[in-house]
Amino acid sequence: MELGILEVMAEASKGDGRTPLTSGEVAARLCAKNPDAPALIERLLRLLASYSILTFSFTTSAGST
């Protein structure tokens, strides 16, 4: 099954090569209709990161606690 997640990430990183995206941003660019899509995408990306296929970083937004 092809989801297009890696293509979305590659398109976003054109230029500087390191543009981070949230799972919500990936879901929005995929036009996902499932309201749980961001959580599912995040789980998939964490799985890929656990096998060193992708890298994963966790940051908090300014103003969040």
TrEMBL record:
Molecular function via GO: protein dimerization activity
Cited Gene3D superfamilies: Winged helix-like DNA-binding domain superfamily/Winged helix DNA-binding domain
Protein name: O-methyltransferase dimerisation domain-containing protein
Entries under Pfam families matching the protein: Dimerisation
Domain of life of the native organism: Eukaryota
InterPro entries found in the cross-reference section: COMT_dimerisation, WH-like_DNA-bd_sf, WH_DNA-bd_sf
All residue ranges annotated as the O-methyltransferase dimerisation domain in the record: 2-55
Organism: Nymphaea colorata
SUPFAM superfamilies recorded: Winged helix' DNA-binding domain (SSF46785)
